[in-house]
Specification:
This protein is α+β, with helices and mostly antiparallel strands. The protein has 4 helices and 9 strands. Helix content is about 30%, strand content about 25%. Strands 1-5-4 form a 3-stranded antiparallel β-sheet, covered by helices on one side. Strands 2-3 form a two-stranded antiparallel ribbon. A two-stranded antiparallel ribbon has the order 6-7. A hairpin with a 2-residue loop joins strand 2 and strand 3. The radius of gyration is 16 Å and the shape is globular.
Length: about 160
């Protein structure tokens, strides 16, 4: 059951998929339509899942589910992964690689593989104050508080001296 992301409880589980490039406005419109259909029909063992989504910065797809109503199961999580993999194919984009880092450079969202990010940290091209996206947050409360943070407050801090 599709609901507005902002109406979901703070303990709702989130999954964040970052794209290796920005989506165009037309792609975002198409992806929203596909997400609407997918989430409207998303179930766990026949029970509706109360879920919503956001697309942030034309680059991140954030899906949240109210686990208090009906919890996602292995099969329903698999279904969401297959949906995201289909988006990857449809739009020739990488959404599943967790070994990449997105961070802010002014108003621009930069995207680097982890090795390049480590190198940039060593060369002081990024600092502890660089705003990074911590895609490891688990729920909406963490998403709101700890998703977009200085590198010093994220797992990225281990690379920055």
């Amino acid at each position: 059951m599709l609901v507005d992301f902002n109406t979901l409880p703070e303990e709702s589980r989130v999954w964040i998929y970052q794209a290796n490039r920005s989506f165009t406005d037309d792609e975002i419109s198409e992806i929203k339509s596909k997400l609407d259909i997918f989430i409207t029909n998303w179930t766990a063992h026949g029970a509706d899942l109360q879920a919503g989504y956001l697309i942030k910065y034309k680059r991140f797809i954030v899906i949240a589910i109210n686990q208090g109503l009906n919890a996602a199961t292995g099969c329903s999580i698999d279904a969401s992964v297959h949906f995201i993999q289909q988006l990857e194919k449809d739009y020739d984009v990488d959404l599943m690689d967790k070994m990449n880092v997105s961070y802010k450079q002014g108003d621009f969202i930069a995207y680097k593989n982890l090795l390049d990010f480590k190198k940039m940290a060593k060369e002081k091209a990024v600092s502890k104050n660089t705003i990074v996206f911590n895609n490891l947050v688990n729920n909406i409360a963490e998403f709101n508080e700890n998703w977009e943070v200085p590198a010093s407050e994220s797992w990225h801090s281990r690379f920055i001296k």
